[in-house]
Amino acid sequence: MRKYESDIERQMREFYDNLSERGKRHYAATEAVKLGHGGIVYISKLLGCSRNTVSRGIRELKSARSDSVPEVSDRRPGGGRKPYEYHLKYIDEKFLDILKNHTAGNPMKRDIVWTNLRQQEIADILYEKHCIRVSRTVIRKLLGKHGYKRRKAQKKVTMKTAENRNEQFENIVRLRAEYEKAGHPAVSIDTKKKNSSATSTVTEPCIPVKRSGLSITISAHSPTA
Q1: CB 47 within 8 A of CB 28
Q2: pLDDT in tens, 127-154
Q3: Residue 205 placed within a domain
Q4: Is 135 part of any domain?
């Protein structure tokens, strides 16, 4: 029987010490069977276990019912860290509240949505607004759970610049919040649709909308060439 080198023996002992009771038996049995005659004696001395332990492991591996052998658990039933849903019952509601005004999507594919906020920014806002502290790993799970896709960055040259562009969107968010607070309806419509057979852009005309005595006119702006 050929013995292992000293460095290999040291690595085997370190690996063996980190296994569960059942794992130790099966690992010692596997090594003993691999070495053949004299393997049980050598492995038992190398790993510091009894020959009966190695023999029991061999019987378990050979038995067709080895899966029924109970695992010796290293922790109490129910032990370990609980998932974030266990401690934070309403985190989905708070998470969606933060992304409400930071969500964009593809009007041609309703199931594709994304956000302009980074994972760390969402975590920071979640703590500042709702006193909920979570890691970026939890934020990534929440984004996937609610169907947010990763938006691939593309390098494009802007054809024109608009002064105070960001302020315009901030004003829209403010007006929307005021209308919702007053009980008025808020309508969000994307009227632009690219024609696949031409380079032109098709737009819808102005649409008058009436609801509960409130008249709203939705105008579509044609793109500039």
Answers
A1: yes
A2: 998 888 888 888 888 988 888 877 766 6
A3: no
A4: yes
CA gyration radius, the chain: 32
Instruction: List C-alpha distances in Å: 141 to 144, 149, 208.
Output: 5, 12, 41
Residues 64, 195: Cα–Cα separation, whole Å: 64
Task: Decide if 158 is inside a domain.
Answer: no
pLDDT 10s digits, 165-214: 778 778 888 888 887 888 877 776 665 555 555 444 444 444 444 444 44
What range defines the domain where residue 114 resides? 84-145
Any domain includes 119? yes
SS3 assignment, position 4: coil
Q: Which of 145, 173, 196 is the last residue of a domain?
A: 145
Helical (H) or strand (E) element with 123: helix 119-130
